[in-house]
Amino acid sequence: MLEGLYSAAAGMAAQQQRLDAISNDLANVSTTGYKSERIGFRDLLYNSPGDAAGAGVGLGAGSAAETVGRTQAQGALESTGDPLDVAIQGDGYLQVRRADGTTALTRDGSLRLDARGRLGTADGDLLQPPVTVPPGTQPRDVSISANGTVAANGRTVGRIALVTVSATDRLQPVGNSLSLPTAGSGAPRAASAATTLKQGALEGSNVDMGDEMVDMIDAQRAYSMTSRAIQTQDQMAAVANQVKQ
């Protein structure tokens, strides 16, 4: 009897995790370079009862949800007219150094110049390798080519490096549109020549509102169904208790 309660409770927890992922996607529908989460389900532990009546019949403990990565589909390019904005076209990331010294990857190309003329993100994380323009250079005087070459007043000052990893699904999101390489993702390496930058534009989120709303309704109904299963199990236990008495 308790196995049914456990299975239903596990199903509710799985659907709650799915709803949390959908809610996070919807909250980031306007976040530059955001990639929607992919949620999968797996069976929990199965076992076979030892009595002869149940021999060979597997008893499961329900299902569990887990994040299996993020959809890497290209988001729509949105023209901004800002010369320091760059949109990544293709499979690649900008590489930045965070305040704690760690290296992170991002597809958010809304770049800024700090007081020393160094290119970095809006949060102050500097590009790696560094790209620095001469002091006093105005953003309108900066040009960025498709291969990442940066020029200030017509003079080349550096190149924005685009990198990728072997398994993008294994990157670890850490907030602020940043992800950290892991052992599963592999170390960053140079992106292919097919990956380019477009100046004066940003990549929008790849979240599809229609798909997310359909998934949310589906998850809510599945959650409701598993909650009714718990109520049914409780009613069955009450009947069993009455028979015993």
Key structural traits:
245 residues, alpha+beta, 7-stranded antiparallel beta sheet, 3-stranded antiparallel beta sheet, 25% helix
Detailed description of the structure:
By secondary structure, the chain is an alpha+beta fold. It has 2 domains: 2-71 and 207-244, no CATH class; 77-203, no CATH class. The chain is 25% helix and 30% strand. It has 2 helices and 20 strands. The chain has helices at residues 2-27, 209-244, and strands at residues 37-43, 46-47, 59-60, 63-70, 77-79, 86-89, 93-97, 103-106, 111-113, 119-121, 126-127, 142-144, 149-152, 155-159, 162-164, 172-175, 178-180, 189-190, 196-199, 201-203. Strands 7, 8, 11, 15, 16, 17 and 18 form a 7-stranded antiparallel sheet that branches. A 3-stranded antiparallel sheet has the order 12-13-14, with no helix packed on it. Helix 1 (2-27) packs antiparallel against helix 2.
